[in-house]
Design a protein that fits this description.
heterodimer, A: alpha+beta, GMP Synthetase, Chain A, domain 3, two-stranded antiparallel ribbon, B: mainly alpha, 3 domains, binds protoporphyrin IX containing FE
């Protein structure tokens, strides 16, 4: 593990503080976080949400930025919201999926 | 920050609920139909308290929040929402006073009718322009937004007829065009309002909301377009066909039959799409709102069946009051109440916890509500609405008033649940107000 991998893992952990209010789970386990890259002390995060235009999406984005910046070694966060590819329930971590009562195989 | 929340949506909801409860209490007291005639001024007071005060205000409040979600674009003019609220509220109060004057319960100030109508028309013009421009700037429109556009056209038609009626009642001129419109066009006004504006808009919004809340794949655009086309024909047949029939002095029967046929086709296709949304949902466990909405769909289906039986047996005229009651309470009011139970906690969550997300642990939306406790109020509401419909048909005015009394209790129960959600009463202490979070105010969203 390089320092950078450690930092990425730390950012990912910090993002678990952000929950999707509707589904009630953190956005990492829900599969909303598509990519985390570190460039110097800047975290570049690519994420999604269930519905474009949903008023929750902008709060999620801000929440992601503020929790990433709480990680030591991160000076600023650059969060990109994308709907390509769109989020699918298949992206949810298996344990959480069962708990949410999602139909299997989708 | 949080620029996506509409400041006044909750205020519209609160005013709407106040009108609903006021109308229900009057009904329990025996005011208006069925004690009075269905076209009596007292009945018109009730009808407009419910159609304008409750259903239309709630719908407007929801649209200010949802049209931006449907088209992923901010509202054209946030600043028009409060003036519209003032115009609509003042206009409704003046119109109701005008109806009371018409019925001799007030001095004969019939000018209140066109005065109230003018304020209402101005208010709805602001609403329709605001939402319409938002839609216009977002073309090509997604499927659900097209229904909203159609609903906005329908509300304009409803208002236009209402305005003409108000003039005709203010200055009766037998034989004039305005008077003949009043004499014959009331069904057009009612269909444009209840079917065109409220039902078509609800259908459109429900496509999006159901797929959002149940994580179901969107209904195929071709399918929902068919529903849209049928509803456009339904509205066109009633409003344009009906207006032509009135102008040439013919009866409305042909236009209304055409409209009813298109309405049936609309609902048949819509039922198929809703069934698909429920079947294909990824979120298997339904929440209270999506469970209760099923009952409002059932009420709509029952209303269609009832309407068909009444039409075939030639007893529609005798029972139109019961039919309209079922549509207004079982379908539209039930649908809106069930959705308020979802929307109010959700907006409250965003308002309170959105700004601190990522900085402090937050509860879930689900923590703001107590579904088990709330379920009984909804069960009461629907059961009493159906009982009230049956009692109307059986000609039992006292039984009807008792059923409405149960509806009042149920409405207060639901209202209390909504207030608890706004006050975060059910959120456990450590998560309730994390550092940096501000408690929401009851009636206005902090943005
Ligand atoms: C500018 C706003 C409106 C005005 C001035 C208005 C005015 C009127 C008037 C004067 C009548 C009575 C006609 C008669 O003498 O028989 C009437 C009937 C009716 N209106 Fe409205 N209206 C307005 C909006 C609405 C809306 C938005 C709805 C529904 C969503 C609605 C639903 C009805 C219904 C169902 C009736 C028939 C009531 C009955 O015969 O008991 N109105 N309206």
């Amino acid at each position: 593990m390089t320092d950078r991998d450690d930092l990425i893992a730390a950012v990912r952990d910090a993002l678990r503080n952000v929950i999707d209010p509707e589904l009630g789970h953190n956005i990492v386990d829900l599969g909303f976080v598509y990519d985390i890259a570190i460039d110097g002390d800047v975290a570049h995060i690519t994420m999604t949400a269930t519905t474009p235009g949903c008023p929750a999406a902008s709060f999620l984005k801000e929440g992601v930025a503020s929790s990433a910046m709480q990680v030591e070694g991160i000076g600023s966060a650059d969060v990109t919201m994308t709907f390509d590819p769109p989020w699918r329930p298949a992206m949810i971590a298996p344990e959480v999926k069962a708990e949410l009562g999602f139909a299997e195989l989708n | 920050m949080g620029g996506n929340l509409c400041k006044w949506t909750i205020s519209y909801f609160a005013a709407a609920l106040a009108w609903l409860i006021a109308a229900e209490v009057l009904m329990v007291a025996g005011f208006g139909f069925p004690s009075a005639d269905i076209a009596a001024p007292d009945t018109l007071v009730l009808v407009h308290m419910i159609c304008l005060g409750w259903l239309s205000m709630a719908m407007c409040g929801a649209l200010f929040q949802f049209v931006p979600v449907l088209v992923s674009r901010p509202l054209h003019a946030e600043g028009w929402i409060l003036p519209a609220f003032v115009l609509l509220s003042a206009g409704l109060i003046a119109l109701l006073a005008g109806f009371l004057a018409l019925g001799g319960r007030m001095p004969p100030w019939l000018w209140l009718l066109p005065f109230g109508a003018t304020l209402l028309i101005a208010g709805f013009a602001l609403v329709a322009a605001n939402l319409g421009l938002t839609l216009w700037q977002s073309r090509p429109l997604p499927a659900s937004a097209r229904f909203v556009a159609l609903g906005l056209l329908a509300v304009c038609a409803t208002m236009a007829f209402g305005g003409i009626f108000a003039l005709a009642l203010f200055e009766p001129a037998p034989g004039s065009l305005v008077s003949s419109v009043l004499a014959s066009a009331v069904p057009i006004h009612a269909i444009a309002g209840l079917a065109g504006w409220l039902t078509v808009t609800a259908i459109g919004v429900s496509y999006r909301l159901l797929s959002m809340f149940m994580l179901a794949p969107d209904v195929d655009a071709g399918k929902s377009r068919l529903v849209w086309l049928f509803s456009a024909f339904m509205l066109g047949a009633a409003v344009i066909g009906g207006a032509v029939a009135v102008l040439v002095g013919q009866g409305l029967d042909l236009a209304l039959m055409l409209s009813a046929a298109c309405g049936l086709a609309t609902l048949a296709c819509y039922a198929r799409d809703v069934a698909e949304l429920y079947r294909k949902r990824k979120r298997r466990k339904l929440e209270l709102n999506t469970r209760m909405v099923v009952w409002s769909f059932a009420s709509l289906g029952a209303a269609v069946a009832l309407g068909a039986v009444l039409a075939i047996t030639g007893s529609l005229a005798a029972h139109v009051g019961a039919l309209v009651f079922l549509i207004v309470f079982g379908w539209l009011s039930g649908l809106i109440l069930a959705n308020l139970y979802k929307i109010v906690p959700f907006l409250t969550w965003l308002e309170t916890y959105g700004p601190v997300m990522g900085k402090a642990p937050t509860p879930r939306v689900h923590d703001l509500v107590a579904e088990r406790r709330a379920t009984k109020w909804f069960v009461m509401f629907f059961a009493a609405s159906w009982a009230a419909t049956a009692l109307l048909m059986l000609g039992q005015p006292l039984g009807f008033r008792i059923a409405i009394a149960v509806i009042v209790v149920a409405t207060f129960g639901i209202l209390q649940e909504l207030i608890r959600a706004r006050r975060l009463t059910d959120v456990a202490a450590p998560l309730r107000l994390p550092a940096g979070a501000l408690a929401p105010r009851l009636l206005i969203t902090r943005t």
